[in-house]
C-alpha cells in the first residue's frame, strides 16, 4: 500500500524550528563576541549598548501595553495571555525598563498607576482588532517584529547584552508561536 501524505500541512513555524533557531541565535551570540570587558571593539561601545538596551526596554514595554489593551477588551483570553504578558514585563525589567503594572485580575492598571514617570498621554493605548483571533494575530505579529529587531541588534552589542537579546528574541518567537497555535 503506497504511503499517502497528510491532506493538509499546517502553516507556520514548527516547535522544532523555533527551538533550533533559538539555540542557533544563542550559540552565535555567545561565540561571536570576545569578553564583555573588551573596550577596543567598535560594536561594543557603551553608547551603542546603552541605546540597544533602552530600545529593547521600550519595545518590551510597548508589547506589555499591547497585551494590556487586548486583555482589557477580551478578558476571556486572560488564561492564555497573562503568563505571556508577565514574561514580557520581566523582559522589560531585564533591560532596565519599568513594565506597566497589572491589576489583580490580570486587567491592566489605570494608566496613571502603570507608569508614574510618564504622562498618560505619552503612550496611547494601542487599537485592538474586532475579534479575538485578529487580536491574537496582531500580538503575534508584534512579538515577531520585536524578536526580529532584537536578532538584528545582536551583531552590534557586547557579549552579555547580545546573549540577553538572543534569549529574549527566542522567547518572543516562542510567544508568537503560542499566540497563533490553534487559531489556524
Could you characterize what this model shows?
It is flat and about 60 Å long. By secondary structure, it is mainly alpha-helical. The two termini are 31 Å apart. It has six helices and no strands. The longest helix has 28 residues, at 46-73. Helices cover 60% and strands 0% of the residues. It has helices spanning 15-32, 46-73, 78-94, 111-114, 132-153, 159-180. Residues 25-42 and 104-122 have low confidence and may be disordered.
How would you briefly describe this protein structure?
The protein has about 180 residues and is mainly α. The chain contains 6 helices and no strands.
Question: Helices and strands in order, then pairings?
Answer:
Blueprint: H1 15-32, H2 46-73, H3 78-94, H4 111-114, H5 132-153, H6 159-180
Helix pairs in contact: 1-6, 2-3, 2-5, 3-6, 5-6
Keywords:
6 helices, flat, 184 residues, mainly alpha
Helices and strands, in order, run as: HHHHHH
Please report the number of helical segments: 6
Helix content: 55-70%
The biggest beta sheet is recorded as: none
- Proportion of beta-strand residues: under 5%
Q: What is the overall silhouette?
A: flat
Instruction: Please report the distance between the alpha carbons of the first and last residues.
Output: 31 Å
Low-confidence stretches: 25-42, 104-122
Number of strands: 0
CA gyration radius, whole angstroms: 18 Å
Could you tell me the mean pLDDT?
A: 76
User: Which structural category do the helix and sheet elements fall into?
Assistant: mainly alpha
Amino acid at each position: 500500500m503506497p504511503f499517502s501524505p497528510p491532506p493538509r500541512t499546517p502553516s507556520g513555524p514548527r516547535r522544532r524550528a523555533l527551538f533550533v533557531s533559538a539555540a542557533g541565535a544563542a550559540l552565535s551570540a555567545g561565540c561571536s563576541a570576545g569578553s564583555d570587558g573588551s573596550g577596543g571593539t567598535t560594536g561594543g561601545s557603551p553608547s551603542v549598548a546603552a541605546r540597544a538596551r533602552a530600545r529593547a526596554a521600550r519595545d518590551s514595554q510597548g508589547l506589555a501595553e499591547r497585551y494590556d489593551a487586548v486583555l482589557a477588551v477580551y478578558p476571556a483570553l486572560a488564561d492564555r495571555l497573562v503568563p505571556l504578558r508577565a514574561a514580557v514585563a520581566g523582559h522589560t525589567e531585564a533591560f532596565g525598563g519599568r513594565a506597566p503594572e497589572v491589576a489583580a485580575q490580570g486587567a491592566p492598571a489605570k494608566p496613571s498607576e502603570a507608569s508614574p514617570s510618564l504622562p498618560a498621554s505619552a503612550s496611547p493605548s494601542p487599537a485592538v482588532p474586532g475579534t479575538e483571533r485578529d487580536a491574537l494575530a496582531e500580538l503575534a505579529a508584534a512579538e515577531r517584529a520585536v524578536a526580529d529587531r532584537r536578532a538584528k541588534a545582536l551583531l552590534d552589542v557586547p557579549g552579555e547584552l547580545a546573549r540577553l537579546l538572543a534569549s529574549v528574541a527566542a522567547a518572543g518567537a516562542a510567544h508568537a508561536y503560542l499566540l497563533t497555535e490553534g487559531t489556524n
